Amino acid sequence: MRVIAFTDKCIASGSCVLACPQVFTQRDSDGVVDVLNEHPPLELLKKVQQAANLCPAQVFTIEDEENTSELTVIVDDREM
Ligand code: SF4
Questions:
Q1: Does the CB atom of residue 45 touch ligand 1 within 6 A?
Q2: How far does residue 15's CA lie from ligand 1's centre (Å)?
Q3: Does ligand 1 come within 6 angstroms of the Cβ of 15?
Q4: Residue 46, by phi and psi: left (phi above 0), alpha (psi -120 to 50) or beta?
Q5: Is 14 in the pocket of ligand 1 (CB under 6 A)?
């Protein structure tokens, strides 16, 4: 599974950090989401998935969701 955080859409609600603080954090400057670990251990897969689904601003895109043998979480900070 691959999770991409399109930070341009982030409204700094912090829900993803509450759901999975091992992987997500918020930038000190503006509260926008950041990723602490691009290759989290697989036992965090469900929490990462939950965090992505809980986001009120649909910041996250999940690719290859059926593949549970790999987990990558990356930031895409391009402006849309
Ligand atoms: S839950 Fe979504 S809007 Fe809130 S901080 Fe995380 S990425 Fe940003």
A1: no
A2: 6
A3: yes
A4: alpha
A5: yes
Nearest to 44 by CA among 64, 70, 26: 70
Provide the CA 7 distance to its chain's centre, in angstroms: 9
In a domain, 45, yes or no: yes
Supply the CATH number for residue 26's domain.
3.30.70.20
pLDDT digit string, tens, across residues 17-68 = 999 999 999 999 999 999 999 999 999 999 999 999 999 999 999 999 999 9
For residue 26, being part of any structural domain is answered with yes
Answer whether 20 contacts ligand 1 (Cβ < 6 A).
no
pLDDT of residue 67: 97
Question: By residue range, what is the domain housing residue 13?
Answer: 2-65
Tell me how many domains the chain contains: 1
- 72 domain residue, yes or no: no
Confidence of residue 79 (pLDDT cuts 50, 70, 90): confident
